[in-house]
Each structure stands twice: as structure tokens, then as C-alpha cells.
Design brief:
- By secondary structure, this protein is mostly helical.
- The chain has two domains: 374 residues, no CATH class; 74 residues, no CATH class.
- The chain is 63% helix and 4% strand.
- It has a three-stranded mixed sheet with strand order 1-3-2.
- Strand 2, helix 18 and strand 3 form a beta-alpha-beta unit.
- Helix 3 crosses helix 15 and helix 4 runs antiparallel to helix 16.
- The longest helix has 30 residues.
Length: 483
């Protein structure tokens, strides 16, 4: 998602890589906006991982070769590249949550905020067994930051691995070690996928083969120049990215071997360095421009979708709402890029003093974001923001009782024929929220017959359980019959 600011240093800049970022981010956006043509657009994140692995590895190896590599300078660039725009996104999402979220929603968001600022939100989603593709994840405004946590964890260990790798003077040995690392991570991911798909999706060790695939491109470039017919490699790689975007769905076992298709495609596109007519796809000014703001665009797109839904605007409702959402995302991303991301990336070269000043500033920002979020989490989402009547309604909604709020519990299409009759205790009303949209769609009515009130369940039997008992009571002189 990020790469390195030195990607633009004279002699290193490759516009086709920014063009590839454009392909990746648009795939993700179109997938999240539910464009039916690209259900597998989520593989754009895997393309981002390959790009990051390529750029980070290239810059570290070049600096090591030139004898100028510094961990301090590396992490200075990483901090300036990632954290300013990330913190603005997290803080803005928390403020939006304060305005729009119920206490329970805010409590969940606050937990996500704390995990995000410490770059462990991917672990939080895994421990919570949150399926990335499940409908229940659609309300998590910071869900997309799992990939940023994976990248940041990758940055903690990758420089050390490359330092060890360069001790092997043989380029062939370096390539073999990198290939073995890719194979090991891929095999482990594939074998673990049936056991814990969430772990394979969210956790960094299972994604190493994607970053390392970018790194092996750097090693390949050093040994072999792209062949004369590099356009064929370029087009083959591009096809390996686009085909999964078209045919993969939320039910595709992923990642693992299925992820290797777009990963290999991204590696081939980067390796090809195609200057032929085919590369116009990535080198045109529109693709390059979108690629430059792709990080900011990725950051702001998902919170915008989530919070729009919370003000009753479903941006996936029609083609026009999707394009309207894309326009708003472009404006937000442009503002984030020009006012936050680019100024921090253009800062002066790192010195020890400035690095520690930057680290101290980040620590202050982390505290300023994490402390209020932690308090909101521990205080159950600050329910004091609402009056007593609103709190009572939200307590009922927490039990999924709305819209079934009175003793005459009828829901769905009230003018339609009876389609569902629920019989149970007060907790039976929890099924209303699930069945309500389906019954409305089918034009059917639902009802609840409550046979027993559960104390503090939030339900309202209001004597219906007594009617049920009268119905069950055997008639005098004869056997009873259940209705």
C-alpha cells in the first residue's frame, strides 16, 4: 500500500508501479462498492503487498550495496510515509463514531481504534473470529486497516532478514533462500487455511510469501534483464491480476494458492519493465495520478462507506450512488494526500535528533487517540450521550427487538399474509431483526407468541404467556391438544 518515498528519487522512479497501484486500489474500491463485474477486487491488497515488498527490498539492498543503509533513516521514512495520514483517518473515524454510533457500536469502534494505532488490529480481528467477507464486518469502520497492521509488522522484521541475506555473497544463494521462504510461507498458509481461515487471512506470517515475491523480483532484476519480448510478460501478469478480480468471490478459499495467482501476476508486471505500447495501460497520467494518491484513497474509502450507511445512505444501492461515492472518496483522498501525506513525506532527510522528535510526536498522537478510545471502550461506548428514552430504545435494539417493541408483536409486511410464527420466551424476539428484511422483501407478515417472560430480557410478553397456558390447559373431561 505504501512502498517508499524514495520510489520517486531520480533514477529510481517507475511510473508503471504507480499505475499498478491504481489497478490495485480500484480493484479494492470496486469490490467494496459491490460492482458485480469485480467481486474479487479484494486481491488488490495482495498486489499492494507485492509492490511494498519490491520497493522496500530494492531500497534496502541498494543502500546496503552503497554502504549507506541506516535503520534510523529507514524507520524515519516509514513513519513519515504511513503514520500521519493513518492517524488522521483513525481520529476522524473516531469523531464520526462519536456523532453517529450507538454506545455498543462506539465501544467496538473504540477497541478497533486502540488496536489500529498500535498496529495490531489484524490480530484483534483474528481473535474475534471476524470473517472479512461476512455481513457483520460491514459496520467496522477500520476493518481495512488490518492490511496496514500486516505491513507495519512486516517492516519490523524485513530489514533484519535482508541484512542476513546479503551476508551470502552468492546472488544464486540469495535467490534460493528467498524462493524457499516464499514456498514455506505459501505451503503453511495453504495447509492452515482449512483449520483457521481467519488466521491465514489476517496474520502476517501467512502473508510473507506475498512481500517476498516482490523481493525476489529485485534479486531477479540484478541477475537477468527483462527479455526483449517483455510486453508478453507484462500482459500475462496483468491478466493474472484481472482474472481473479473477475472470477474470485467471497467464497473462494483465500489466501493460499489462490492468492499466488495475482501475486505472481504483480511480480511479472513489475519485472517486465515494459516500455512497449502495452505499458500505456499503467503509464498514462490518469493511472499514475490515481496511483500516487492510492494510499490516501485506500485509507478513506472504507470509513466513508460505513458511515454513509449509518446515515441511511447505502452507497451500493445503484450505479449512480456508487459513482457519487467514488467522487466523494476522490475529494477526501485528494485532501488527505495534499495536506497530510505529501508534506510529511517531503520532510528533510533523517537525523538522529529529528527522528526522536518525530517518534515523540507520534507517541503524543498515539496517546491523544488511544486514551479517549480506551475510556470509551471501558465505559461501554459513553451512553451518556443519549437521553433515557434513547438509551431504552438502544437496549432493545441490542437484543434485536426493534422494530418489535410492544406486546402485539407483528413485523415484516403488516398487510401481507402470515409467513412466520415464532413461539418462545422473551428472547424469541431476537430473531425479528434477522427476519424483518426478508419478510418485507417477500411481502409476508411475521408474529411472535410469547409463552414465558425472561426477567431483564428486554422483551414484552405482557400476559401473552398466560394466554398460551390457557391454550395448553386440558379441557375439563378431555385430553388437551397443543395448538
Amino acid at each position: 500500500m505504501n512502498g517508499d518515498s524514495r520510489h520517486r528519487v531520480s533514477g529510481l522512479y517507475r511510473p508503471d508501479v504507480d499505475g499498478l497501484r491504481c489497478v490495485a486500489v480500484l480493484g479494492v474500491l470496486f469490490c467494496h462498492l459491490k460492482f458485480s463485474a469485480l467481486p474479487g477486487g479484494f486481491v488488490g491488497v495482495d498486489v499492494f503487498f507485492v509492490i511494498s515488498g519490491y520497493l522496500i527490498s530494492r531500497n534496502i539492498l541498494n543502500d546496503l550495496q552503497a554502504g549507506r543503509f541506516s535503520l534510523l533513516a529507514f524507520y524515519d521514512r516509514r513513519i513519515r510515509r504511513i503514520f500521519p495520514a493513518l492517524f488522521v483517518t483513525i481520529a476522524a473515524s473516531f469523531v464520526a463514531g462519536l456523532l453517529l454510533n450507538s454506545p455498543e457500536q462506539l465501544r467496538i469502534l473504540a477497541g478497533d481504534v486502540v488496536s489500529s494505532v498500535f498496529s495490531i488490529v489484524n490480530i484483534r480481528f483474528w481473535r474475534g473470529a471476524h470473517d472479512y467477507f461476512a455481513a457483520s464486518s460491514d459496520d467496522r469502520a477500520l476493518l481495512h486497516l488490518w492490511s496496514l497492521s500486516v505491513e507495519e509488522q512486516f517492516y519490523l522484521v524485513w530489514p533484519a532478514l535482508l541484512l542476513l541475506l546479503v551476508r551470502l555473497k552468492s546472488p544464486k544463494a540469495q535467490g534460493v533462500i528467498m524462493a524457499l521462504l516464499i514456498a514455506f510461507s505459501l505451503v503453511v498458509a495453504q495447509l492452515w487455511l482449512p483449520r483457521d481461515a481467519a488466521a491465514v487471512f489476517y496474520l502476517t506470517p501467512f502473508r510473507v510469501f506475498e512481500f517476498a515475491s516482490g523481493a525476489i523480483v529485485v534479486l531477479a532484476e540484478r541477475r537477468w534483464a527483462p527479455p526483449l519480448r517483455s510486453s508478453i510478460i507484462f500482459l500475462a501478469g496483468l491478466a493474472m491480476i484481472f482474472i481473479p478480480m473477475v472470477i474470485y468471490t467471497a467464497t473462494t478459499p483465500f489466501p493460499g494458492l489462490t492468492a499466488m495467482v495475482p501475486v505472481l501476476g504483480a511480480a511479472l508486471v513489475i519485472y517486465s519493465r515494459s516500455h512497449a505500447a502495452a505499458s500505456v495501460i499503467l503509464r498514462n497520467s490518469v493511472a499514475v495520478g490515481i496511483g500516487r494518491v492510492s494510499y490516501s484513497l485506500y485509507l478513506c474509502h472504507w470509513p466513508m462507506i460505513v458511515f454513509a450507511r449509518q446515515i441511511n445512505w447505502d452507497v451500493t444501492d445503484s450505479l449512480w450512488t456508487r459513482f457519487a461515492a467514488l467522487a466523494i472518496m476522490a475529494v477526501l483522498a485528494g485532501a488527505l494526500y495534499h495536506w497530510i501525506e505529501r508534506p510529511f513525506r517531503a520532510a528533510a532527510p533523517a537525523t538522529a535528533k529529528r527522528f526522536w522528535q518525530l517518534s515523540a510526536a507520534c507517541a503524543v498522537l498515539i496517546a491523544a487517540t488511544a486514551i479517549p478510545a480506551s475510556v470509551a471502550f471501558r465505559q461501554d461506548g459513553w451512553s451518556w450521550r443519549y437521553d433515557e428514552a434513547q438509551q431504552e430504545l438502544m437496549r432493545k435494539q441490542a437484543f434485536a427487538l426493534a422494530p418489535c417493541l410492544d406486546s402485539n408483536c407483528v413485523f415484516g409486511d403488516l398487510s401481507g399474509p402470515l409467513g412466520v410464527q415464532i413461539i418462545g420466551d422473551s428472547y424469541a424476539q431476537q430473531y425479528v431483526a434477522v427476519l424483518q428484511p426478508l419478510l418485507l422483501k417477500l411481502g409476508r407478515r411475521g408474529g411472535i407468541l410469547c409463552i414465558r417472560r425472561v426477567p431483564d430480557a428486554g422483551g414484552a410478553c405482557d400476559g401473552r404467556h398466560r394466554r398460551w397456558r390457557r391454550l395448553r390447559r386440558p379441557a375439563r373431561g378431555g385430553a388437551g391438544e397443543n395448538p
